[in-house]
Each structure stands twice: as C-alpha cells, then as structure tokens.
C-alpha cells in the first residue's frame, strides 16, 4: 500500500478493512459454534457465505484496482449489494425465522444446500440447528442484530469506496 495518492491508499485500507471485518465476523461465529456450542441455522450460514463473498470481492478489488479503473467502483457496488443482502438476511432471521419452529426449506436453506457448500466444508457451512434453537444473545442483543450492524457498517464503507473510485 505504499506509493500512490492519498485517495488510493485510503481506498486500499477501506478494502482491506472490509475483508478483515468480514473474516473476523465468520471467525467469531466459528468460535461461538466450536467453542461455545452455539450451533448455526440456515440464516446464520447464509450470513457466513455473504461475509466470505464480501471478503473475496474486497481482496479481488484491491488486486485489480491498479490495473482496471472501474474495479474500485464495481467492487464497491458489489460489496454494497452483498451488505444489503446481509442486512436482509439478519433482519429476516431476527424478525421471522427465530420465531419459527423450523427453518427447513426457507430461502437460506435452499441457497446453502443448492450451492453444496455444506458438503464441501461442513465445519464451516453445515446447518446444525433450527432458527429457534440458534437464537442466542451477546450482551443482551441477538447475534443476528450484531451481524446486521456490521453489514450496515460495511455498506457505508462500500458507499465510500464507490465515491473514492470515481475521483
């Protein structure tokens, strides 16, 4: 991240921040699952997929932005869209799915099983609880609302990335 303009350095740090925040969110979820015994529901797994996709897009954008001017804006837009999907998933989990006895065959369950990621990396992507069973709080706030707040923060960073990319 040496050299370049101040705007280029700032955008590089923003992209790196998105990747780090996204991977940290998944790491915390895995800590909760494997150390604290909080098993994930389909909506939890979908949010993990979104975070890891955002991290991948951020790192790819970071690598491509020096060669392709539109990469910065395109990456910011894609990260923003993924963050909005994450907000929707987290809110649906909190407002609807957490109150259902089963979340089998919901959109999240169909996406996870349709992609086959649960078979590729079961310790990371296998659904192991219903949404009602996965309703856990941290400091009195449901996990999915913490996730929602992080998705909102990343969406704000994505807006900033698209602005920096146009200068």
| SSE series | HHHHHHEEH
Structural class, by secondary structure, is mainly alpha
Largest sheet: 2 strands, antiparallel
* Straight-line distance between termini: 18 Å
Approximate shape: elongated
Describe, in plain words, how this protein is organized in 3D.
The chain is mainly α. The chain is 71% helix and 2% strand. The chain contains 7 helices and 2 strands, in the order H-H-H-H-H-H-E-E-H. The protein has helices at residues 6-34, 42-64, 70-95, 107-115, 117-120, 122-125, 143-165, and strands spanning 137-138, 141-142. It has a two-stranded antiparallel ribbon. A hairpin with a 2-residue loop joins strand 1 (137-138) and strand 2 (141-142). The chain is elongated, with a radius of gyration of 17 Å. The mean pLDDT is 84.
Question: What are the main properties of this structure?
Answer:
single chain, 167 residues, mainly alpha, two-stranded antiparallel ribbon, 2 strands
Summarize the structure.
With 167 residues, the chain is an all-alpha fold. 71% of the residues lie in helices and 2% in strands. Strands 1-2 form a two-stranded antiparallel sheet.
């Amino acid at each position: 991240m040496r050299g370049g303009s101040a705007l280029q350095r700032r955008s590089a740090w923003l992209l790196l921040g998105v990747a780090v925040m996204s991977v940290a969110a998944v790491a915390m979820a895995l800590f909760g699952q494997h150390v604290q015994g909080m098993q994930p529901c389909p909506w939890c797994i979908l949010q993990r997929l979104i975070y890891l996709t955002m991290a991948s897009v951020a790192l790819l954008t970071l690598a491509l932005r020096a060669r392709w001017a539109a990469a910065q804006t395109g990456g910011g837009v894609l990260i923003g869209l993924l963050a909005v999907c994450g907000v929707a998933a987290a809110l649906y989990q909190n407002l609807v799915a957490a109150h259902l006895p089963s979340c089998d065959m919901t959109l999240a369950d169909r996406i996870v099983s349709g992609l086959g990621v649960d078979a590729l990396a079961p310790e990371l992507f296998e659904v192991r609880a219903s949404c009602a069973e996965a309703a856990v709080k941290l400091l009195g706030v449901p996990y999915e609302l913490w996730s929602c707040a992080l998705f909102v923060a990343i969406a704000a960073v994505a807006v900033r990335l698209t602005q920096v990319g146009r200068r």
